[in-house]
Design a protein that fits this description.
Elements lengths: L3 E6 L3 E9 L11 E8 L2 H12 L3 E4 L1 E3 L2 H12 L8 E3 L5 E8 L2 E7 L15 H4 E7 L5 H5 L1 H10 L3 E5 L12 H4 L5 E2 L3 H7 L5 H8 L5 E5 L5 E5 L5 E3 L13 H14 L4 H15 L12 H12 L7
Parallel strand pairs: 1-4, 1-9, 2-7, 5-6, 9-10, 10-11, 11-12
Antiparallel strand pairs: 2-3, 7-8, 12-13, 13-14
Helix pairs in contact: 1-9, 7-8, 9-10
The chain binds adenosine-5'-triphosphate and magnesium ion.
GO molecular function: kinase activity
Protein name: Sugar or nucleoside kinase
Keywords: Kinase, Transferase
């Protein structure tokens, strides 16, 4: 029985955010921060929370520890309407955590990957594949277990008539070890940003990167920040869609995940690629109107209101 529109398979962690730090910390000394926030982190969680808010029935498969942070992650996802019954609690590893040191515009992050690095295809209850219409995979370079089993997961999804999307996200090791020629034929929608795509294909220009992946893709949407997005298919001209202009950007944290949420919400409802691309650009732009990745996504009405008031657009999410 189909229970979910979308199941996200991805990384989970908490963010411990320190603001107003008086000086750069030095070994052997101590500095004060003026403000602290402990909150749900991880880009796949932003995606899941926001697509649930748009109205998709959403489940999450991710690995966390049997600890306080794990409980915080689970309750935060639940509060945002994401089904957490498929979360996997590790006996061995702690939940992942990122400490974010904010210095005005700049920040330094330290991440402990913990349980998220160790989830594998074996850990995933296979009934998931008969309960959802779509699976979204993200942040493969943070999850070595999922990265190793990526092809098996994609192939299993296809055998079960489940469509898939993949957002590779940044590789902190900057090795960009992804066999795109083998993987992409099994991905229905590939969702990198332009820099990630150039790294994965070892290209100097975006044009070169697009021509390298084009023979292997089904559908690829390349996110280009304030310049919008490019939709690419096999043997077709790329479709470039300008961003919705926001002259008062608060920050662009999570814009890519919000783009993914809008695009996939529209795609699973059977809308055209063009409509899905417009919806993605709009939800990406809406993301930039408040701080963080989920601030603008509190209710359907609120999201539609921002679309109307800030961008003069009707957001089609029904
Ligand atoms: N400043 C902006 N103004 C309007 N729209 C924006 C802006 N920044 C991003 N967007 C929209 O959001 C989409 C995704 O943003 P971006 O290209 O930054 O993704 P990303 O690099 O994957 O982000 P993330 O850091 O969340 O992973 C863009 O394609 C665009 O449509
Ligand atoms: Mg991204």
């Amino acid at each position: 029985m189909i229970k979910y529109d979308v199941v996200a398979i991805g990384e989970l962690n908490v963010d411990l955010i320190l603001n107003g730090i008086e000086r750069t910390p030095e070994i052997g000394k101590e500095v004060f921060a003026k403000d602290m926030l402990l909150t749900l982190g991880s880009s796949t969680a932003i995606f899941a929370a926001n697509i649930a808010c748009l109205g998709s029935k959403t489940g999450f498969v991710g690995m966390i520890g049997k600890d306080t942070f794990g409980k915080l992650i689970e309750s935060s996802l639940k509060k945002r309407g994401v089904d957490t019954s498929m979360l996997i609690y590790s006996d061995t590893y702690s939940s992942g955590a990122t400490i974010c040191l904010n210095y005005n515009e700049d920040r330094a992050n330290i991440t402990y990957l913990g349980a998220m690095a160790f989830m594998t295809f074996d850990n995933i209850d296979k009934t998931v594949f008969t309960q959802t219409r779509h699976i979204h995979l993200s942040s493969i370079f943070l999850q070595s277990g999922i990265k190793r089993d990526l092809l098996a997961i994609l192939q299993f999804a296809r055998e079960n008539n489940v469509t898939t999307s993949l957002d590779p996200q940044w590789d902190p090791k900057e090795e960009w070890d992804m066999d795109y020629k083998t993987t992409l034929p099994y991905v229905d929608i590939f969702l990198p940003n332009e820099t990630e795509l150039k790294h994965i294909t070892q290209s100097d220009t975006l044009e070169e990167a697009m021509s390298k992946i084009q023979p292997h893709i089904n559908l690829c949407v390349i996110k280009c920040g304030r310049r919008g997005s490019i939709l690419l298919q096999k043997q077709k001209e790329p479709i470039i869609l300008d961003a919705f202009i926001n002259n008062e950007v608060v920050d662009a944290i999570g814009a890519g995940d919000s783009f993914n949420a809008g695009f996939i919400h529209s795609f699973v409802r059977g809308r055209s690629h063009k409509e899905s691309q417009i919806t993605g650009n709009l939800t990406g732009a809406i993301n930039t109107t408040t701080a963080g990745g989920t601030g603008a996504f509190t209710s359907k009405e609120k999201i539609k209101d921002i679309a109307r008031k800030k961008f003069n657009q009707e957001l089609k999410i029904e």
